[in-house]
Amino acid sequence: MITNLAQGVQAFTSNVFLVTGDTTALVDPGANFDVVPRIEEHVDELDRVYLTHTHSDHVDNVDAVREAFDVETWGFDADRPEVDNAIADGEAVPIGDDDYEALHTPGHKNDHLCFYSRAAGVLFAGDLVFANGGFGRTDLEEGDRPTLIDSLDRLREAVEEDFAEMHVGHGPSVTRQPFDDVETAGRAARMG
């Protein structure tokens, strides 16, 4: 089961996805709100915390979550203080009841990862792509539009056309034809 713990939070934060199952995981702990009691409403412990990237709105709650649940974090760049364990591009990682492929997708930030499970038909897209074909900003440090376009193209090739759910870093998840949103983002990024 996938639950967005940041639902209804008015502060500036990323979405925070709690995924329960064989490996109870948090995808992006968020920022600027107390996420710990929201996690505790659903589970007593966490097995892993995954970071799509290390912008502060996605990771400022890392220390609180580490302390409360004695859990380690996984992300692309283990040189970052928020990342305890590095995930290599293409590596399979357990989230909930499925294995997800980690896809290194820079352009919004150098350490950006998406997580995709072909078996589950689920994509955690971070800030690469959003509902309705939105895409991540490239005007921040480490942002680069041509690199982002390459990452969007890579993601489009990696996912199945009929995958079921796309959970994004900001805004609503996409549960109807998310492949269309990935395609639209690729086209829109080329135009701007």
Automatic annotation (TrEMBL):
SUPFAM superfamilies to which the protein is assigned, alphabetical: Metallo-hydrolase/oxidoreductase
Cofactor annotation: Zn(2+)
Molecular function (Gene Ontology), one example: metal ion binding
Keywords: Hydrolase, Metal-binding, Zinc
InterPro entries: MBL_Glyoxalase_II, Metallo-B-lactamas, RibonucZ/Hydroxyglut_hydro
TM regions (residue ranges): none
KW Phosphoprotein (keyword) present: no
Domain called Metallo-beta-lactamase: residue spans: 13-170
Domain of life, source organism: Archaea
PANTHER family assigned: HYDROXYACYLGLUTATHIONE HYDROLASE GLOC (PTHR46233:SF3)
Protein name as annotated: Zn-dependent hydrolase, glyoxylase
Organism encoding this protein: Halogeometricum pallidum JCM 14848
